[in-house]
Amino acid sequence: MNSVQTISGIQARNYIDGQWVASARQFESLNPADTREVVGVAPLSTAADAAQAVEAAKRAFETWREQSWVRRAEIIDNFAQLMKRDLEEMSRLVTRECGKPLNEGRADVVEALHMAQYVAGMGRQPNGFAVSSEIPAKDAFILRKPKGVIVCITPWNFPVAIPLWAILPSVLAGNTVVFKPSEETPICGHKLMELFAEAGFPPGVINIVHGTGEEAGDALVKHPDVAAILFTGSRAVGKYIQQTAAVDLYKFVATEMGGKNATIVLADADLDIAVNACVLGAFKTSGQRCVSSGRLIVDRKIEPKFTQMFLDKARRVRVGNGLRDDVFMGPLINQDGIAKWKHHNARATEEGGEVLLDGKHLTDGDYAYGHFVEPFVYRFKQYKQSTFCLREEAFSPHVAIIGVDGMEEAVRVYNDTEYGLSMAVITEDYRKWRWVRDHADYGLGYVNLPSIGAEVHLPFGGVKSSGNGHPGAEGIIDSVTHRIAFTVNHAREIVMAQGLSTKV
Ligand code: NAP
């Protein structure tokens, strides 16, 4: 394997207990825009590797938990400065390894940097507080305690930002971490691990185990010494992990999963904003965002005009290698992504969708070695319940335009999926967006914006089958700490709350 030619020159290793550890088996990470380019090589870890990492994290927990929040935050601040130093290099790596255009690769790294800065600042925020007791001589406190070893399992589409949503709050609070990056983006994970090591996290505090979900990931989920699992990825895998971990009653699982998101365009919408928001929501990251809008729910009064304007713009979307400045849509991540896109497109036709833009799988010339497809757009003039293509996540540039009569039908259609992640509404009427805000099911809502876009000081997560109520970024500290009550008596006798007698 040493002879493999890699673009980044990175031969990733596992990092366990402060040591870079080689593995007998390895796998290649390929550039989805040109699969002749090997971005790097990473270990195909075994269950034994995963167990070693958990044991190292368990040992490190005993001393790491003794450090102050401020000291831990200082190391996170070191890390933030290294991220800033390497921002451009990392942005290009994200584009090379997961295909999204460079402006999106950079936004991923900038969001990661923001998370590091935000969490470093949290080190000097209150991490508990005093409350009154019924009894004047008692002081009562609500405090946060770390949980122990936390496993962070992350997807490929935000290979830098999403791991940091999970890892940094965990270590700030005194937990130790085993990180399993996606097997599609191991080199981005490796680069993060290099920076963690350089920033000065002590051995065992953050460990990385590469490899497949089925082998390394599964072993981490099942390990008895793991206290919590922070998972971001598909609904099928999230459900499996939640059910598997439930066998151990003490294990906590936070799952952030997929969506069948929508942009609702009401009759009074500014059509320029509507079309822009829909193109960004549908085609940024080639539709491979958990928050991508696969459904455009449009009031019938304006649907023909909206559709014409949307198609005009969608036809102008430039597809290609994300390192080129003029490219809007990079490749899909792999052949499975293309197969899924084709399957959803075929189902849309079978189920009665009117195809308006029959996007092609691009295989010639510059596209020959990548996973490139064009936007696929179809229309249902009337909503059809129980339709696969309108209810299931396609994770690709596959978009339905659905005609509806007014706001109430729009929200009924929006809610008719098992998911509840992201919703955008386009209207000039504050009474209307307020009604939609209160009646649609989602974790992320937007007005006169695309259904995409996150900031780290806001919670990021969904409802229904999109997430189990423990959002990432802001607020994740709740998932990685136990909140404990602690009461101290200052009197020379025992006096109990609720007038409970102390007479023996
Ligand atoms: P995925 O296939 O579910 O994989 C996510 C992670 O889980 C990967 O690291 C994967 O490893 C691992 N994994 C797979 N099987 C496992 C198992 N049995 N035990 C433990 N770990 C396992 O998702 P993906 O394709 O990487 O990402 C796309 C999905 O993520 C979409 O559904 C998208 O909507 C969702 N997503 C959600 C959010 C959110 O915040 N709600 C954000 C981004 C993406 P391998 O890489 O080896 O398979």
UniProtKB/TrEMBL annotation:
Stretches assigned to the Aldehyde dehydrogenase domain: 20-481
Record's keyword terms, sorted: Oxidoreductase
Pfam families cross-referenced by the UniProt entry: Aldedh
InterPro entries on file: Ald_DH/histidinol_DH, Ald_DH_C, Ald_DH_N, Aldehyde_DH_dom
GO MF annotations, alphabetized: oxidoreductase activity, acting on the aldehyde or oxo group of donors, NAD or NADP as acceptor
Family: Belongs to the aldehyde dehydrogenase family.
Name recorded for this polypeptide: Aldehyde dehydrogenase family protein
Species this chain originates from: Fimbriimonas ginsengisoli
